[in-house]
Amino acid sequence: MRAAGARSLSIALVGFGAALAATLSAATAPDQNPTKELEVKKWSGAINVPDPVSVAVDPQGRVYVAATTRRKVGDLDIREHRMWVPNDVGLSSVAEKSAFFRDVLAPGKMRQARGGLADHNKDGSIDWQDLTHFSERIYQLRDTDGDGVADKMTVFAEGFNTDVTGIAAGVMYHDGWVYATIAPDLWRFKDTNDDGVADIREVVAHGFGVHIAYAGHDMHGLSVGPDGRIYWSIGDKGMNVTSREGRKFSFPNEGAIMRVEPDGSGFEVFARGVRNPQEPAFDDYGDLFAADNDADMSGERERFIRIVELSDTGWRCNYQYMGMDSPWMREGLWKPRFDGQAAYVLPALASYSDGPAGFRFDPGTALSPAQRGTFFLNEFPSGKLRAFRAEPEGASFKMVDARVVNSGVMGIGLAWHPDGSLFLADWIGGYPLDGLGAVWRIDAPGAVNRPERVETYRLLKTGFEKNTDPELVTRLGHADQRVRQGAQLELAKRGRAAVLLAVANDTKAPQLARIHGLWGYGQLLRRGAAEAVAVLALLADADSELRAQTAKILGDAPQAAKAAAAKLIPLLADTAPRVRLQTAIAVGKIGVPAALAALIEQTEKAGVDPVMRQALVAGLVGCATPEQLADKKSHPSVAVRVASVVALRRQASPLVRDYLADADSAVVADAARAIHDDTSIPEALPALAALLDQPGQRSEVIARRALNANLRLGTPAAAGRLLSFAL
């Protein structure tokens, strides 16, 4: 257990050279303990599991596998159809993507096969209907005789084969339902008669996979978050979603982390700007981490990232086609923090890995004590299973104890079995579809019968519905995250607000029990079944983690917390950075205008800390008007002016142009990025264009964007001023 108040945020090193040296030493030093720390056994036995991508295990030990038949043949890869790149990057919805296919692949237009696209349905024509020939599948496997090897496999669900269907890249069991990520939809299924075939199927959310883009940059990473919501990721194929409540979320040119209530209500984008993190994972305290793919550029590395709520990691899909001339490479957006880095980006914690795929965090009693607090990362196609821990450092985290714990199996997805072993989906044979695959069990030698694992398995297999409230309260303090969460979710399902709050307030209870009690209360707060005023006393708790988590659940229920929001303002100056971070995000989500002065004060103190800046910007976006942010152009602190620019960028306000006259070139550069990048801020383009001829404002970052602003505006002189480095 981490000591109260010990958690804070920032790997900020004073210079790029120091940052790069520190992160690359962890990534490139010889692997510690190269002997196999874990053992593997082929659990699927003689059963072939064709081309599996993701794996999940339910409390009874039934295994679900998301498998693809469509990769590059039904779900195309833009690398095999490069003439479509200009069209593809301009698509902004799934409907536009379908219309594009039906145009360029109308019957009679395509004369011969290209890449994986061929006459799959054998009707004599290569057209868009060939994209509908292959269907994705979810398989269920069982070990019916209990010998530790699967002996039965059924097709749990199929029929995923529209012209815009992606690959089945994520699967998860939760509360009687099997969820699956198959773009353009998040699905859920239920098998009501236990025959291994789903007989209820529902679309939970729709609108994912706007672009053709790279094969494999699909939806993945299903997990149940600490707040009881379903979380998952989309790669840089993008999204354009209208929630059930009618809210629109358009992020067509970047990857994102999303969340939704299990029934499909309350859809939100949690964070943005990722490239392709396949299985983000939560630690014990609800922090979200991932390993994100690189863009295959010379010298670039994959990245270990912490995903802060409302943050932007900086990747855009159009950078892929710009190669080394993209801002991603030219401006070092992929690198861990260094001086002069773009301020709107939350940088990586470390450069790390090669082909990151499956990613899981130790739940607390799995494997053996040697793996406590460990993240497990499966690399494809190298077949290495890596392990490391994330240790708090200042206001962020650092990677420690990095090592290889197994190698030799070409795994992709990972999942915990309730017995404490780790299951791995094995693609077999490299990238091409070959119809082969397997499921492996990974375990620590001699650990299967450890008492804590046996007890956890019994609790998970029995479930929580028949537990009494006192039994559930006891299990909120269990050593295993899955048991704690199961008890929390059951108490929340029963509406036991008073019980959950009592645990959260019990200073003698284990810290994690109190936190889970608070998270459960937060679930009821979001549903309108609890009162915000009842948790306000916890904002003064002696444990800083309780203060931080209380701020977080208040921010997650903005309408319920509105009347009590003023109580949050003093926590912006809390002694614990983690409390300040969660409070800044919370006041922004609630919208607390009275918090503006405190946010500005903390922004000045935070300086160049990129993690804290992301949180403070989120606060400024929700608490300040564009006019108030523009007024900060005369503030003496560069940190305040930079944060104001980033906040105006997120508000898409043309008032960001006021910062183009700033005396600090870094402020001007971020203002230029804000006006030019993404879909731009059209009203501010003339002011940016005018910088092209101004002396002293000709840094490469600024000049490129100023030139492009002239070109977009059709400035006559621009044609004669073309620069070789135009974006």
Task: Please describe what this structure looks like.
The protein is α+β, with helices and mostly antiparallel strands. Helices cover 27% and strands 21% of the residues. It contains 20 helices and 26 strands. A 4-stranded antiparallel beta sheet has the order 1-26-25-24, with no helix packed on it. Strands 2-3-4-5 form a 4-stranded antiparallel beta sheet, with no helix packed on it. Helix 8 (481-493) packs parallel to helix 10, helix 9 (497-505) runs antiparallel to helix 10 (511-526) and helix 15 crosses helix 17. The radius of gyration is 25 Å and the shape is globular. It starts with 15 loop residues before the first helix and ends in a 14-residue tail after the last helix.
Which terms summarize this structure?
727 residues; alpha+beta; 4-stranded antiparallel sheet; 20 helices; 27% helix; globular; disordered C terminus
Task: Give a quick summary of the entry.
27% of the residues lie in helices and 21% in strands. It has 20 helices and 26 strands. The chain has a 4-stranded antiparallel β-sheet with strand order 1-26-25-24, with no helix packed on it. A 4-stranded antiparallel β-sheet has the order 2-3-4-5, with no helix packed on it. A 4-stranded antiparallel β-sheet has the order 6-7-8-9, with no helix packed on it.
Write the layout of secondary structure elements.
Elements: H1 16-28, E1 39-42, E2 52-57, E3 63-67, H2 85-89, H3 94-104, E4 136-142, E5 152-160, E6 168-174, E7 177-182, E8 185-190, E9 200-206, E10 219-224, E11 230-234, E12 239-242, E13 248-251, E14 255-260, E15 268-274, E16 281-282, E17 288-292, E18 303-307, H4 319-322, H5 327-330, E19 350-351, E20 356-361, E21 375-379, E22 384-393, E23 396-407, E24 411-416, E25 422-426, E26 438-443, H6 451-462, H7 469-475, H8 481-493, H9 497-505, H10 511-526, H11 544-555, H12 558-561, H13 577-590, H14 596-606, H15 610-623, H16 626-630, H17 638-651, H18 665-676, H19 685-689, H20 700-713
Antiparallel strand pairs: 1-26, 2-3, 3-4, 4-5, 6-7, 7-8, 8-9, 10-11, 11-14, 12-13, 14-15, 16-17, 17-18, 18-19, 20-21, 21-22, 22-23, 24-25, 25-26
Helix pairs in contact: 7-8, 8-10, 9-10, 10-11, 11-13, 13-15, 14-15, 14-17, 15-17, 17-18, 18-20
